[in-house]
Each structure stands twice: as C-alpha cells, then as structure tokens.
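User: Could you check the structure of this?
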Amino acid sequence: MATFVLVPGYWLGGWAWEEVAAALRAGGHQVRAVTLTGVAERAAEATPEVDVDTHAADIVQVIEDGGLEEVVLVAHSGANMAAAAAAGRVPGRVARIVYVDSGPMPPGLAGLDFHAPDAQAELRRQVAEEGGGWRLPVPPFDPSAEPHILAGLDAARLEEMRRRGTPQPFATVTQPLEGPLPDVPRTLVACTFTVEDVRRMAASGNPVFAMMEGPGWSYRELPTGHWPMFSRPAELAALLAEVAEPGAPLR
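Assistant: Sure, the predicted structure tokens are below.
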C-alpha cells in the first residue's frame, strides 16, 4: 500500500481532501492531508513573510515527523511550488509527485508568472485593495464567470468553498522557485485541459507547459473542473492509487 501526502492549492486546507483521503484509506493506503501555514485552521499564523519556503517546510515536517518513506506527494493547483521545493529537501523520501490540474513552474518563475499580464495586475490590485497589501482574497467562485473552471460543483459546494476558504499569503504566489526541480517520477492529472493541450503549448514554446513533458512523466486525464477532489473525488482517488502502484505504466 502507498503513502500519500495531499497538499491543497490556494485558499483551502487539508479539509479539501476529506473524500479523496477517505477513499484512499478504505483501500488500505496511508494518507496525510496537509494544511499549510496561514490558511484554513492555521489562518491565525498568516504573516506577510509566509512564502513558498514556509509551505515547503510544512510538507517536509509532515514527512519527517511522520517517518514517511516512498511518499506519493500530491499537489493541487498552486501547491505545485511548495511540493516541488519540499521534494528536493527530502531526497530519497518522495517516490513520485502528482500534479493535479497543475504542473511545476520553471526555476526562477513564480506562480504569479503563470498568469497573463492583465490577470497579474488584477491579482495585485485585489491584494492591495482587499488584502492589506499581502493577502490574496478568496475568489467569489462564480460559476457564471468561470463555468469551465468550476465545472461539477453544485451550489452547496461553492458556498462551502467561499465560507471555509481563507485569504492566501501572497508571498506564496510571488516567490519564485530556485534551483533544479527534484529528479523523481512525475504524474499529471489533467482536468481542465488535456494532455494534447500540454503538448501543443509545449511545442509553441510556453516554458510552463514545456516543464510538463519529457522523461519521467506519466499522464492521466480526469475531465472535470479545477477542483476534482470535490467534483469527482472517487475517480481522483482511484487514479492516485493507480499511479502509486509499482511499475505504473507511462501513458
């Protein structure tokens, strides 16, 4: 059986993985769902200094304090930065990184750099005007504005995300990842885009998508919105269990 460490993306805590974690545990797997510093039940710990390094240290602490080995480290969305950094700090302990509807940023680039210039400016405006200059506010999760991103989420789930979500320390969005990415097997679970989209964007010269191709990568598609732990938790758990199996095929 595998050992999973599940890391949520922006605004959410370990609670976001409850259904996925339950399904994995029912299959006999060991699961730790992480709540990162300054978010969710740890919101009181938020400061302007909380950054990618802080969140990487959170993940490392879970792995080391738990004596965990052969970890399948699962990073949703914006957690990709902290997960990649953490894996590099515990060499030999992470067997695979699974990026859920996300991928590693190239060294020297921050999560903010994934967005177009106008979107970056809008995020900075929100931080300045609504987040005290250092917090990224919880989005409205408006399905009329983002039907593709929020696909599969009903009104009750969207309300829960708004209610339980907490502002994200903005330094986790603006701090670039330094140094080479850890040389461990990597799996992409693509939800709001396809593997063919990745290959097309990589061929066009997009540096982010170029990082999601090459030796060591495997791919799974789970068509849904950007939060598959809510919209298709059973299917996501099954995919995670599948890619954690020794010798899981690259496809």
